[in-house]
Design goal:
binds manganese (II) ion, globular, 8 helices, minor pseudopilin epsh fold, 3 strands, three-stranded antiparallel β-sheet
């Protein structure tokens, strides 16, 4: 059986993030960019009989084998599905154990926000800003290039991600990445999702791409 993956639905209406991200951006980003990564990956998977059934394992296999084209399309398929989960129509802030972990790693929530802005704005060209946790519950920010994803490192659990590719913000913000990053951090970040991921970082599991 050839393994094939479906484009997951957005977890909210495409217009739900307005005015911070327009319906047009969401429809293009999800319906064109994300859909193309999945289509390209499925075409490559159709060529091989030994593809794993989970997208996480496809990403790790492609990374191990140095199959760059498969890796790029599989990782982008995964990263975007995780990005949709990382956004919420309702403004939130970190709470509970995750808030404490952020304060421990960064000094304060404000210091975390400043470092996130600096890393996201300073990231050269395309990529992603990830908040990750290790298995002991220590959190940190890491900006990765192009399709790179923390799921190739099984000691890390991603908590949240912000897409830094221009296609994520150019229709709404043109070249003003700092304004998009501000909106992500102050209005859009899904801290309830991050909290579920944070608990999973220590107990195992966490969000996985729908099979
Ligand atoms: Mn994107």
């Amino acid at each position: 059986m050839t393994v094939q993956f479906k484009l997951p639905d957005l977890p909210y209406d495409a217009g739900a993030l307005e005015p911070h991200i327009s319906r047009t951006t969401m429809e293009t980003h999800h319906g064109k960019h994300h859909a193309a990564y999945i289509k390209n990956m499925n075409a490559m998977l159709a060529e091989r009989a030994d593809a794993p059934n989970s997208l996480e394992d496809v990403v790790r296999l492609a990374a191990r084998e140095g199959q760059k084209k498969l890796f790029n399309n599989a990782a982008q398929s995964w990263n975007h599905a995780f990005f949709w989960q990382s956004l919420s129509p309702e403004a939130q802030s970190p709470s509970g154990d995750l808030k404490s972990a952020i304060e421990k790693s960064f000094g304060s929530l404000d210091a975390f926000t400043e470092e996130a802005k600096t890393k996201a704005v300073g990231h050269f060209a395309s990529g992603w800003l990830w908040l990750v946790s290790d298995k002991n519950g220590a959190v940190r920010l890491t900006d990765l290039h192009d399709a790179d994803t923390p799921i190739t490192d099984v000691s890390l659990t991603p908590l949240l991600v912000c897409d830094l590719w221009e296609h994520a913000y150019y229709l709404d913000y043109k070249n003003e990445r700092p304004r998009f990053v501000d909106a992500f951090l102050s209005k859009l970040a899904n801290w309830r999702f991050a909290d579920v991921q944070y608990r999973a970082a220590r107990s195992g599991g966490g969000w996985s791409f729908p099979a």
